[in-house]
What we know:
Layout: E1 7-16, E2 22-25, E3 32-35, H1 43-49, E4 57-62, E5 76-80, E6 95-100, E7 103-112, E8 116-120, E9 130-141, H2 144-149
Antiparallel strand pairs: 1-2, 1-3, 1-9, 4-9, 5-8, 6-7, 7-8
Function: Also involved in hydrogenase metallocenter assembly, probably by participating in the nickel insertion step. This function in hydrogenase biosynthesis requires chaperone activity and the presence of the metal-binding domain, but not PPIase activity.
InterPro entries: PPIase_dom_sf, PPIase_FKBP_dom, SlpA/SlyD-like_ins_sf
Keywords: Chaperone, Cytoplasm, Isomerase, Rotamase
Amino acid sequence: MEITAASIASIQYTLTDDDGRIIDQSSEDRPLRYFHGAGNIIPGLEKALAGRQAGDALKVDVKPEEGYGVRNEGLVQDLPRDAFKGVDKVEPGMQFEARTERGPLLVTVVNVADDQVRIDGNHPLAGQTLHFDVKVLDVRESTDAEKQSGRAEQA
């Protein structure tokens, strides 16, 4: 069976950056299982997997526009330290949910000074080309419950 809209695919993958460093990978005993066509994985990878079947192996380079987007420097801001009232220690790498006009946005603290905190609302992988090494393990039809939710049931 081929990976098509509303099918459930199970894949093993390794994701690396331009320097070949591993960013993420599925574990041997827990492949990534996803509902194809519902936007549950980044668009560039989903497009590359369409039409594949169990046993297929592929390498996919996903440009930022089809991954986590290009960096938007407008999402980097300096805030006064007192905007973090109630938080004893603010450190780089911490993440907070900010309220914006468009709804909640996950921001990461990138720098802390005495009176200011620099935050970044970009996804940590925004602006990067992503390199996937993928093996398709299984493809099946989705169940009615999966079609309703748009998500694969996890084993």
